């Protein structure tokens, strides 16, 4: 199976500009391609993870990836998939986020010996002269055509700022610069980036008379059509300090039955033959498939040791075992307890992050969704003595899937 055939079989490919040319380059390791990452936070998240996996696959086949960090485009903000304008960030915040991205990307991509490049579009975007840009680049863009782009259409009713309207031009200019500086002949991105990517191929054709190519990858959506990688408390991050390896593992362990095989194909490096066999599994076997998915992805992001710990902790919890060593934990301090040496249950729920507010904690208790060491608690005034939290502490659980080991020294 060629690289291209595998990408298709895994369901990764959404739209392409010229399938025959792209297939030829990718299969023969001739593609120098880029994917852009705007530094909108201090960690990459699951949405980026799919792009990183694609970069890794193509690099393994001899192609050269360029990770483009959006130090310049991050100053504007991508309107794609947004219902409102992004919060504007300072240069210092953007630089801090870029530094965080660099560390995380190196886990996936081999940047040694020119096998891949990491560049920052601030190097050419921030010093542009506005009038020169209008004459040199703006003349090649039709406003009528831009307004038909999906990324702008969905914002027209609520209002699209002129700042954001320029984003397509900036991204197109990136491709144009990367083509000239590094021989970058291809851009990959999420399916919501299609219009911006076509802008780049068109600018290269008009300015240089050369062909460049674009391909979008399938967005990571669940069976209901909603973007994956989001929880009630926010994004699922790749930074272990923002989403612990255990919580990362649990996110994938708890995906819907209808999504597990699709996630296997899109995100893991397991052979397709093995995944096709798992696609025949039913009932309780699907839980085994989810365990495999969770382990494989946690291993990719956090390493084998953390993946094993997360798996052991999850198995202990669901089997009712006593091994709490690898569960997410919260240590309470003396300040958390009253003069009588107790702490109320709602405060415990908030301290552990199992609920965001007291009112939600109260509701969870009243609805019978909270337990301590397997015993359901329905009294909203329930308190726990500090002595009861000594040693290994207790396992505080909300619903079937959220839990935390709480202890005090």
TrEMBL record:
EC number: 6.1.1.1
InterPro entries documented for this protein: aa-tRNA-synth_I_CS, aa-tRNA-synth_Ic, Rossmann-like_a/b/a_fold, S4_RNA-bd, S4_RNA-bd_sf, SYY-like_C, Tyr-tRNA-ligase, Tyr-tRNA-ligase_bac-type
SUPFAM superfamilies: Alpha-L RNA-binding motif, Nucleotidylyl transferase
Residue ranges crossing the lipid bilayer per the database entry: none
Compartments, record wording: Cytoplasm
Alphabetized GO MF terms: tyrosine-tRNA ligase activity
Residues that, per the record, bind L-tyrosine: 34, 167, 171
Chief localization: cytoplasm
Source species, domain of life: Bacteria
Chain span(s) of sequence motif 'KMSKS' region: 227-231
Catalysis: reaction(s): tRNA(Tyr) + L-tyrosine + ATP = L-tyrosyl-tRNA(Tyr) + AMP + diphosphate + H(+)
Short sequence motif named 'HIGH' region, residue ranges: 39-48
Keyword terms of this UniProt record: Aminoacyl-tRNA synthetase, ATP-binding, Cytoplasm, Ligase, Nucleotide-binding, Protein biosynthesis, RNA-binding
Subunit structure: Homodimer.
Job of this protein: Catalyzes the attachment of tyrosine to tRNA(Tyr) in a two-step reaction: tyrosine is first activated by ATP to form Tyr-AMP and then transferred to the acceptor end of tRNA(Tyr).
Family designation: Belongs to the class-I aminoacyl-tRNA synthetase family. TyrS type 1 subfamily.
Protein name per its UniProtKB record: Tyrosine--tRNA ligase
Species classification: Bacteria, Bacillati, Bacillota, Clostridia, Lachnospirales
Gene of this entry: tyrS
